[in-house]
Amino acid sequence: MKRSQTLLISDDILQQLHSLGRLLAEGRIARRMTQSEAAVRANLGRNTVSRIENGDSGVAIGQILRYLDAIRPGQTLSSLLNVEDNVVNAMNENFRPKRARVLSEKELKDYDF
After folding, report:
1. On the CB side of 112, how many CA atoms lie within 13 Å of its CA?
2. How far apart are CA 42 and CA 57, in angstroms?
3. Percent of the chain scored above 90 by pLDDT?
4. How confident is the model over 71-100, as pLDDT tens digits?
5. Which segments cross the bilayer (predicted)?
C-alpha cells in the first residue's frame, strides 16, 4: 500500500519545503519566466515544477537542484537559502508604493519628528 509522504514528515520539515518552494517561485517570477519555460530548461515536467514550488515532499532532491540551476544558473542550494536574490529585491522595489506628490514645506514641518 502506498503511503502519503506528508504523513511521514514533521510539520517543521514541511514548512521548510514550502519555504524552499516559495523562494524558487519568487526567483522564477522575478526573472519573468513561466513554469513551462523553467520546466523545459530544467528538463522537467510542468507538473513537477508546480510540485516543487508548492513544497511537495515527494519530489527528488535531484529534480529540485536541476530546477534551481535552470532558474538561477551557478547558484547552490546553500546560497539560495542564505543569500538574498538581487533580482527578487529589484522586483519588490518596483511594486513598493511611491509618493504621488512632493510634500509642501508646511507638511514637511508637520512630519519632522
Report:
1. 7
2. 19
3. 45
4. 999 888 888 888 888 888 787 777 766 666
5. none
CATH number at residue 50: 1.10.260.40
Among 96, 75, 74, CA closest to 20: 75
Distance CA(42)–CA(64), nearest Å, equals 9
CA distance 95 to 107: 25
> Is residue 38 classed as helix, strand or coil in its secondary structure?
helix
Residue 73 φ/ψ, nearest 5 degrees = -55, 135
Domain that residue 40 falls in: 5-111
Number of separate domains in the chain: 1
φ and ψ at residue 45, rounded to 5 degrees: -80, 155
Residues in the chain: 113
Q: Average pLDDT, stretch 31-51?
A: 94
